[in-house]
Amino acid sequence: MKNIVILISGGGSNMAALVRAASRENWAKRYGARIAAVISNKADAKGLEFARSQGIATELLDHRAYASREAFDAALADLIGGYDSPGQPALVVLAGFMRILTPAFVERFAGRLTNIHPSLLPSFTGLHTHQRAIAAGCKFAGATVHLVTAELDHGPILDQAVVPVLQGDTEDSLAARVLTQEHLMYPRAIARLLQGG
Q: What is the CATH number of the domain that holds 113?
């Protein structure tokens, strides 16, 4: 069985969408994969409660307890490594994990580390993507699922969803419309990855 480990920092709505899709589409039977754990760097992450309610193992690894990013990432990598099974290294899925990962971490999980970003990459890497899209006069915005590389928000694109930017949109209204697409797209992209696509 291939284990999927999801990393979150907050509410975990994309994590919840993945959990629901895994159950609804029976990823265990179809792909030999299961969501084995949800790990957060924040104790108050609401997504941990949802994961526990679904019978998924949860872990807390507070980044503030470590002297450096490198030390935290090393501990996180070791924790994730505990979910590797023989011949089946874990797939690591970032779902609102608000930490920039070190090159050493990214290298350890290369090819099996994914992220969802709320813009149509390569446009608007980093933060405040919706406000930046509105300010730039974009007619369309969206989200991107990509493999993670050492360069922030620049890995190979696995899937994208597009939404129109409407007259009078605010950062919040655009974010909400994009998020509905994220919840559909991320499970689809992960399922395709599990199929070997």
A: 3.40.50.170
